Structure to design on (246 residues):
């Protein structure tokens, strides 16, 4: 893990130099992946890194976890509450669709959730422009392969430092980086609605996806789910700079 962390940190520093920027920032959600990235960018740019908390109906537990990441890592931070912004924007969109008689109630929850991710993306880039920083992504190998991220939302970033690491490996990185234990152990969730979990939404566990990516035999039904997600989300994966493991 020490070698892996050092390699990522050097790569991050190289990306800063290559882009001619002053530092790095990441959205901190209280989840595992953003906790790891926050620690990595703090190591890469100790005096020029920023963790941004952007609550939108965020649970108290996740907000507390995000704060614990900030405190434990020592990264500079700020909070931008986007709840009211989301409410105003989405209500205007809903009103326009209803006036046309074309509001699709079945897609309402997903549309609102994706708008949250895209508002956060816009917020990060606005802050990044202020500081002359790069926006750092948090997608891991499982999420990237299956397309389990919002296009132009959490997928809208400048660089991807942990995209070649499985969820299991990200958890090992977290332990090495001394991420708070409750975050390492918690069930992955985008906190998009009450009791939402990533694995329930995908229909397959991260351990199974990790096994598939490592070439292990998995159940035929799980393999079909994974490969179908990969095919359907091919449009999401474009040429962002990605850390490559040696």
């Amino acid at each position: 893990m020490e070698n892996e962390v050092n390699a990522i940190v050097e790569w991050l520093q190289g990306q800063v130099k290559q882009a001619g920027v002053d530092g790095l920032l990441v959205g901190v959600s209280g989840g595992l992946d953003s906790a790891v990235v926050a620690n990595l960018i703090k190591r890469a740019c100790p005096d020029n890194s920023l963790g941004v908390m952007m609550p939108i109906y965020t649970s108290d537990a996740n907000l507390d976890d995000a704060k614990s990441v900030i405190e434990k890592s020592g990264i500079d931070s700020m909070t931008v509450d986007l709840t009211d912004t989301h409410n105003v924007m989405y209500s205007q969109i809903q009103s326009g669709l209803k006036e046309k008689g074309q509001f699709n109630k079945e897609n309402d929850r997903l549309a609102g959730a994706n708008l949250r991710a895209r508002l956060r993306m816009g917020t990060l880039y606005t802050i990044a422009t202020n500081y002359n920083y790069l926006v750092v992504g948090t997608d891991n190998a499982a999420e990237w392969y299956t397309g389990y991220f919002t296009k132009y939302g959490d997928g809208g970033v400048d660089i991807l430092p942990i995209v070649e690491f499985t969820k299991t490996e990200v958890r090992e990185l977290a332990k090495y980086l001394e991420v708070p234990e409750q975050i390492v152990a918690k069930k992955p969730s985008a906190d998009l609605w009450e009791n939402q979990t990533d694995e329930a939404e995908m229909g397959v566990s991260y351990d199974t996806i990790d096994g598939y990516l490592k070439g292990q035999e998995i159940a035929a039904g799980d393999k079909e789910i994974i490969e179908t997600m990969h095919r359907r989300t091919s449009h999401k994966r474009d040429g962002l700079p990605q850390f490559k493991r040696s």
Summary: The chain has a mean pLDDT of 94.
